[in-house]
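pinned: reference chain
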Amino acid sequence: MGDAGTVQVSRPWVVRAVVTASLVLTPVLTGCGTFSRTEPPTGVDQLTIPTPSPDPADFVATVDNPWLPLEQGRVSTYAVELPSGGHGVRTVSVQSGTERIAGVLTTVVLERLTGDAGGILDRAFYYYAQDRDGNVWWFGRRDADAEGAGAEAGSGNPPSPSTAPEDTWRAGEGGAQAGLVMAAGPRLGDGYRTAYLPGVLEPVATVTEVEKGRVELEIGPGGGEQEAPGSVGTEPGAVTSEVVTEVYELGLGLTRREEEPSGQIESLTSTLRR
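pinned: its structure tokens
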């Protein structure tokens, strides 16, 4: 434990290699609130994933799921081993503002990846909301430089703005739908889409391991080339067919992420609650 309000993470990591020929979805039962069926069964009871018409009344103002806590002012830092052999730092900051998407008030998260020399490699806003049962949904992404955000002082030049649909999308626009990024109670074998933009963004997450205080997800393409699946701490905006393994710990959220075959690894180093 570091200074007050800061959780320092220092422990050896063991990540199990995951090789899957296919991702199988299992049955979904009834809808949650006014959520209506659009996807094959997913194994997460009483949810329809993704959801084409979320009811704002089904959602709450804060994201406090202990597997993915996103309270305002929370800042998580990750050490990144880049495929190039270099190193970087990813900072994930929960913003004080909110944004309404598809009628739902969402929590805004800014992710910023810098390289060895301090230059910005990627910067984007992510939008999440939690339903009344504690499930966390992904409602969109916006490239932070697409609208002239510019470089931050002392951080080098910003990346070129992206116009790719997987880099900037919002649920309810252009066929995009909100997907599930973390269930209230993760269950071994559950599978679900984390987002849905037809033909562009169709990642599927499968719960591959559940232990006391620890959950492991495997995330891969659900059809065609996909953006690296969206959850806090992930590499945003890259079209890929890679399989990603993510580890979440109770109270901390995402603590490790590993891409195969690129080999990029991200490990949580600290969490600050401002």
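why pinned: The CA atoms of residues 26 and 43 lie 4 Å apart. Confidence is low (pLDDT under 50) at residues 1-43, 148-159, 224-240.
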